[in-house]
């Protein structure tokens, strides 16, 4: 029996004007599921560098990574995921969709109006207090 596959994921809760940016996966098995921009950390890469790279690639947006909001461990059928969610400040650029089919700045009142990844829900509750 081999070790179960493990992936390291970073995601960014990008904040601007009391709202957070959520995006809807445009393709693949989880198309239609909402998430924070991000992705797998590459070998030798820091979380911060991976996050800045992924957010730039996916949304064309520049962010400053502020702090770790929380960590989630989740078993997907194909692998075990360890995801670190960071609070990021929006610096520049309007989000341009490339891999996502939709995206919105969500405030406290509409934070739960989109279908997030189940794995994200605990961290989303934690995020509520950041949205004022
Ligand atoms: N980016 C992101 N991924 C999330 C979130 N919540 C969550 O469970 N995930 C999962 C979905 C994927 O299994 C994994 C992210 O990996 P990824 O973005 O490289 O997605 P992927 O494996 O579909 O991409 P790829 O190999 O095709 O590039 O983390 C989230 O909020 N943001």
UniProtKB/TrEMBL annotation:
Q: Where is the secretion signal located?
A: none
The cofactors required by this protein are: Mg(2+)
Which superkingdom? Answer: Bacteria
Q: Name one GO molecular function term.
A: 8-oxo-GDP phosphatase activity
Question: Which residues are in the Nudix hydrolase domain?
Answer: 5-128
| This protein's record includes keyword Heme | no
Q: Which SUPFAM superfamilies match?
A: Nudix
Reactions this protein catalyses = 8-oxo-dGTP + H2O = 8-oxo-dGMP + diphosphate + H(+)
The portions of this protein that span the membrane are none
Class in the EC hierarchy, top level: hydrolase
Its Enzyme Commission number(s) read 3.6.1.55
Keywords in alphabetical order, please: DNA damage, DNA repair, DNA replication, Hydrolase, Magnesium, Metal-binding, Mutator protein
One GO biological process from the UniProt record?
Answer: DNA repair
Per the record, the similarity remark reads: Belongs to the Nudix hydrolase family.
Q: What is this protein called?
A: 8-oxo-dGTP diphosphatase
Naturally occurring in which organism (per UniProt): Selenomonas infelix ATCC 43532
Taxonomic lineage: Bacteria, Bacillati, Bacillota, Negativicutes, Selenomonadales
């Amino acid at each position: 029996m081999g070790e179960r596959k493990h992936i390291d994921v970073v995601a960014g809760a990008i904040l601007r004007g009391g709202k957070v940016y959520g995006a809807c996966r445009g393709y693949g098995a989880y198309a239609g599921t909402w998430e924070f921009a991000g992705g797998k950390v590459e070998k030798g890469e820091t979380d911060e560098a991976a996050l800045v790279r992924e957010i730039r690639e996916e949304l064309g947006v520049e962010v400053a990574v502020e702090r770790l909001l929380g960590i989630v461990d989740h078993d997907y059928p194909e692998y075990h995921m360890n995801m670190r969610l960071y609070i990021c400040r929006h610096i520049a650029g309007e989000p341009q969709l490339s891999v996502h089919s939709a995206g919105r700045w969500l405030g406290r009142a509409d934070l739960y109006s989109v279908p997030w990844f189940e794995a994200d829900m605990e961290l989303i509750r934690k995020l509520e207090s950041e949205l004022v």
